[in-house]
């Protein structure tokens, strides 16, 4: 993989914005170089100062948990920012294309649309696994990215590891593995394989298992050349100081997070069983995530009946390969019980 050929010409030639902190990094008593408010901030702490553009303290803490070096780590304003930056850095509008594998996460297609980049869809097989022949056929010399979501949203299953490895070994562009739900999965993460595959990008997020969707913090792990391109293209201060402070604090509570993961997985298994026992439920798909996809007799009716009870789930019945399907996030034990009762009472 040649990073110079892979990135867009204008990005290769781009001189990134140089911040005040880029130009002077040392210790000093008086900083009069960034037009900040020298008197302070209405909040305590140092919120009158611009945050670290490369978030090194936070990356250091993440690195200790993930075992991935800082230089292989990119932080985004949600993983959605990393997805958008991958398009902007690597895909020439109206010329390059990317491959996505429906049914899958909607942001890949939206980001492609915003960036005017062609999308090539290769549907998953009926068992929601990769159609390797279809992917090979869809790829051409202008294909820059392939998005593989594992565990996949909205189906919940993990993608077979050897199939992902086949794509990684054969595709010349970047293979983006979206691991938003990896903490709930039996399957291993791909972040340990970064040294093996220069074209691998792994996305993870603080929005799901870490319980910090409101902070907007996502991670991309990749080989150094890919990370360097993302850092060059990102807005200089894309992660604000409050997010950096709060995420650092959250990382001290990993035991709590691991406890929630355990409970969620246990609830997922018992809720799956209970749902399968309902007459209206035709199929419960196995899940490696914190949600379950089910097929019911009448998806829209079921959805509307639950809304009447004040319970909101996701109607996925119009999505490719998901006819009649609903997606249900695992709630608290109490919430799941209420959901089951409500479903039992639908005609
Ligand atoms: C929820 C989700 C994300 C998270 O996006 P953030 O921008 O980090 O909140 C990413 N990918 C998938 C597949 C998701 O379901």
Would you kindly provide a written description of the structure presented here, covering whatever features stand out?
The chain folds into two domains: 3-254, Type I PLP-dependent aspartate aminotransferase-like (Major domain) (Aspartate Aminotransferase, domain 2), CATH 3.40.640; 255-344, Aspartate Aminotransferase, domain 1. The protein is 36% helix and 15% strand. It has helices at residues 3-6, 9-12, 20-23, 56-66, 79-90, 107-114, 132-138, 161-170, 224-233, 241-250, 254-276, 299-308, 333-344, and strands at residues 73-76, 97-100, 118-121, 143-149, 174-178, 200-205, 218-222, 281-284, 291-296, 314-315, 325-329. The strands form two sheets. A seven-stranded mixed beta sheet has the order 1-7-6-5-4-2-3, sandwiched between helices. Helix 6 (107-114) links the parallel strand 2 and strand 3 (118-121). Helix 4 (56-66) packs parallel to helix 10 and helix 5 packs across helix 6. The structure holds pyridoxal-5'-phosphate (PLP). Residues 44-343 form the Aminotransferase class I/classII large domain. This is Histidinol-phosphate aminotransferase. The modification N6-(pyridoxal phosphate)lysine is found at residue 208.
